[in-house]
Predict the structure.
Amino acid sequence: QKPGLELAVVSVPSYACQRHTPLLHHNITLTDALSILAENAELGENEGRGVAFRRAAALLKSLPQEVRGAEQLRGLPCLGEHSLRVIKEVLEDGVSHEVETTTHSEQFKAMKALTGIFGVGAKTADRWFKEGIHTPSDLQRSGHTLNRAQRAGLQYYDELNLPVTKSEAVAIGQIVERAVHAVLPGAEITLIGGFRRGKQTGHDVDFLITHPDEGREEGLMPKVVSWLEAQGFLLYQKTTGNSYLESKEGPARPASNMDRFERCFSIFRLSTDNEGREIQTGNGPRSWRAVRVDLVVSPYSQFPFALLGWTGSKLFERELRRWAVHEKAMTLSSHALYDRKRTLYLRASSEEEIFAHLGLEYIPPCDRNA
Ligand code: GTP
Ligand code: MN
Ligand code: MN
């Protein structure tokens, strides 16, 4: 007598933005397997396939209990034929043949190692792989001309692939706050990305900066960066200016992950003295480490949209935009929400209001871990 039907009876909505997805869930073995296949598809630039595996994994993350048999999955959305096959295999044999083959494949290992270099995307990694470059060391020896980001990525490779802890994120936050307040008192700094969703570690630390007096935030980033540089906190930075103009943007612009805020992709030099931790390097131990930090500046009126757009997860964001377009005839970005039927922009002063405009139950950040 299996506890079969309970799960199937519960009706689960099909968009991830309609569900609560906590960080800790009951189906890690299954979601790990599907995530490997998603990652492999993304590295092979097969986005559609990647999304299908991500959606299936997200569905499993939202279930209130462990799936023990395939019959429990009847009636659940988001599970395509391929994902179901993998799930069944893992449930029956403990492993999936396809997942095993993938994790052991030279190409997958090389693509992961190469895209693990800051500044290296799937296209570049694939080109190098075809030239026989499989590791960062191979790349180092190859004599390829690298751009500034990639040189920094290679130089700090090991550290940047070390998870950033919550306490390191807090320490970075204090530095960012000092920098921002030194150049613009009254500015507000919010921790976004995975840490806002309750993650205890991350691949980077993300911050959103705004000021209650609209317009005061303009041109803030170069000043913050200069301050940080003068104090020796930056190992690398690339700042991009704000290129958003509501009039030019146009509501018909295709849904895209890229926004036009003033931003800075950086690598911080964080002292590890407080944690009593030493970083081992080729040149011996040292008392600081490199940490990836993303800074974004938003005008106050767009802040709720920026906050929602930069809190993630990536799949949750994608699902929000898909819901908006397909179910509500609206366009959601990190800047605004546009109602195509009424041909107007919908204002919001909080994330809650954006969910309400979209006709969705409010999902708090800790439940956006789709
Ligand atoms: P870890 O950093 O691995 O802990 O996860 P994370 O969820 O914080 O991921 P990441 O830092 O890559 O991104 C944080 C959020 O910002 C995600 O929701 C992304 O979708 C979003 N994001 C990242 N880059 C961009 C971008 O260029 N434009 C927009 N609009 N959003 C972005
Ligand atoms: Mn992040
Ligand atoms: Mn980031």
